[in-house]
Amino acid sequence: MSERAGRLSVEHASALAAELRATLTVLKRKLREHGGQSDLTPSQVSVILRLEKDGAATVSSLARAEGMRPQSMSTIINSLLDAGLVESAADPNDARKTLMSLSKQCVKSLKQGRAAKQDWLTNTIQQKFSAQDQAKVEAVLEVLARLVED
């Protein structure tokens, strides 16, 4: 491959990367709009998603996992407690510790938000894409999946 062809390939890949990122940003914004309004900060969302994924945890273990000071995590947890999104309970293995977990209200809200996003995306795909376009999207998804493979 000539140096010029390699340079064009890098330039083309860079342009594709920029376009993909911009398109995905808009898609993410649209999904957020259709998933229900949330006044949560990115840090609060991160903690909720971590508790959802990993289960109950202490404030100090959440702080370590999120790379922040325990005092900062306590502030986040207190705001989530006040909002009714997390609950605290004594650790059954060590009564000196308190475990934080998602409240039923939070779990229900997460499910409803995801369902709303799924419904919007499903309807939009059906309305805007022909069967042929849907097949193209399916093929592109198979290729894009390789971007995130380990």
Structure in words:
By secondary structure, the chain is mostly helical. The protein has 2 domains: 3-37 and 107-148, no CATH class; 42-103, Winged helix-like DNA-binding domain superfamily/Winged helix DNA-binding domain (Arc Repressor Mutant, subunit A), CATH 1.10.10.10. 71% of the residues lie in helices and 10% in strands. It contains 6 helices and 2 strands; from the N terminus they run H-H-H-H-E-E-H-H. The protein has helices at residues 3-34, 42-54, 59-66, 70-82, 104-128, 131-145; strands at 86-91, 94-102. It has a two-stranded antiparallel ribbon. Helix 1 packs across helix 5 and helix 3 (59-66) crosses helix 4. It is elongated and about 60 Å long.
List the helices and strands and how they pair.
Elements: H1 3-34, H2 42-54, H3 59-66, H4 70-82, E1 86-91, E2 94-102, H5 104-128, H6 131-145
Antiparallel strand pairs: 1-2
Q: Report the biggest beta sheet as strand number plus sense, adding barrel if it closes.
A: 2 strands, antiparallel
End-to-end distance = 28 Å
Give the radius of gyration. 21 Å
The proportion of residues forming helix, as a percent range, comes to: over 70%
Number of strands: 2
Mean pLDDT: 92
Structural class designation: mainly alpha
H and E string: HHHHEEHH
Strand order of the largest sheet: 1-2
Strand content: 5-15%
Number of domains: 2
Supply the number of helical segments.
6
pLDDT below 50 for ≥5 consecutive residues: which ranges? none
> What overall form do the CA principal axes indicate?
elongated
